[in-house]
Amino acid sequence: MVGRKVGIVGAGSVGATAAYSLTMTGRCHEVILYDIDSDLTVGKAIDIGQSTSYSPRGTIVTPALHPSEMKDCDIVVITAGVPRKGDMTRADLLMINAKIMKEVVANVMKYSPDAIIICVSNPLDIMTYVIHKMTNWDRSRIIGMAGALDGARMAYEIYKKVGFGSGQVKGMLIGDHGQNMIPMPEISSIGGVPLEQIVTKGDMQDIIARTKDGGAQIVKHLGTSAYYAPGRAVAVMVEAMLDDSQIVMPSSVLLDGEYGYSDVCVGVPVVLGGNGVEKIIELELDGETKAKFKISVDSIKDGIEILEKNNFFV
Ligand SMILES: NC(=O)c1ccc[n+]([C@@H]2O[C@H](COP(=O)([O-])OP(=O)(O)OC[C@H]3O[C@@H](n4cnc5c(N)ncnc54)[C@H](O)[C@@H]3O)[C@@H](O)[C@H]2O)c1
Ligand SMILES: O=C(O)C[C@H](O)C(=O)O
User: Fold this and answer.
1) What mean pLDDT comes out for the span 199-207?
2) Does 177 participate in catalysis according to the annotation?
């Protein structure tokens, strides 16, 4: 799938930043932006398009004024939706974003029927599940972006704790993109050196707490949620697919027996390549982590149940 067409639905903070990041690295031929706000779509497309004069490749940035103008994309990124503000949790966005998702996904199915979809809108794992339910596409083609961001946040916290190895830190986590996410410093490393051999247990607890709270910290300071790190995280996933680079990245995917669960989307390490999710990696979890993972999966299932009770899927 070398260097082709990427559609981004939602030209707000995350969508536009993802587009900008993609054009800066120049890995794709064309980015198409669509938002229900046409002025925003056109304005961002022009501004980002003009920035590509100085990037390694003159990626074309096209505004779509109607969903039909975003067609035959290889990858579609969905960032359409409402971000949280103030004291809201991501779960508070469930009903409003599920409604938006219904409209957006119907258009993606119609106009880009062969695409891989990367879901960004929150609550992430439940929105990713909604896309599976609506499309019924092969599960390799629908992926939720969360671990790429949370792993970067974890790497940031690890660096802040030890003061070296920036850019060499690999953070691993599993579970939902919410309060029950499970950062796993015990299997993370700095330049290949296990973190366990560098930081104390107390420091690890701090790293875990700060990683889990990473999104809320930004909301506290900015009054809306993060977009630079999320935008870059989206672009890294897109690039892995365009380049078929087969990288390992924790992402939200539909489980079908892995980790003992089915019919739920949750974050686990996967291999990303030209076909989307190339492989789901099953970590061996100890008893304590298994129990945490169950709480995490149950919290996602609770959200799905709320949608079912509201007849969302009929
Ligand atoms: N998965 C993650 O790690 C992660 C990270 C950051 C943000 N998010 C989520 O991403 C979403 C977007 O965040 P943001 O900061 O970019 O918000 P934003 O408000 O800046 O942008 C969202 C855009 O979606 C558009 N939109 C709404 N309904 C639409 C529709 N039916 N069709 C097309 N466009 C539509 C809006 O007009 C708006 O421009 C939020 O739900 C947020 O919680 C997730
Ligand atoms: O925190 C949010 O609500 C947005 C996003 O999920 C994030 O983690 O930055």
Assistant:
1) 94
2) yes
| Mean pLDDT, rounded, for 4-15 | 97
Using DSSP bridges, classify how beta strands 116-119 and 142-144 pair: parallel, antiparallel or unpaired.
Answer: parallel
CA angle 72, 75, 76 (to 5 degrees): 90
- Report residue 189 as tokens: 């490393």
Q: How far is the CA of 226 from the centre of ligand 2 (A)?
A: 6
Q: Which residue, by CA, sits nearest to atom 15 of ligand 1?
A: 13
34 class by beta-carbon count within 10 Å (0-12 exposed, 13-18 middle, 19+ buried): buried
Where are the CATH 3.40.50.720 domain residues in the chain? 5-144
Q: How far apart are the first and last CA of the chain?
A: 35
Please report, as a single letter, which amino acid is at residue 283: L
CATH class for the region spanning 147-307: alpha beta
What's residue 186's pLDDT? Answer: 85
Query: Of all residues in the chain, what percent are helix, strand and coil, respectively (each to 5)?
Result: 50, 20, 30
| CATH 3.90.110.10 residue window(s) in the chain | 147-307
pLDDT at site 191? 92
H or E segment to which residue 189 belongs: strand 189-190
Distance from the alpha carbon of residue 225 to the mean position of ligand 2, in angstroms:
5
CATH class of 5-144: alpha beta
- Dihedral, 55, 57, 63, 66 alpha carbons, nearest 10: -140
Per the structure block, which two tokens stand in for 105?
């996904």
35 is in an annotated binding site: yes
pLDDT digits (tens, 9 = 90+) for 38-74: 999 999 999 999 999 988 888 999 999 999 999 999 9
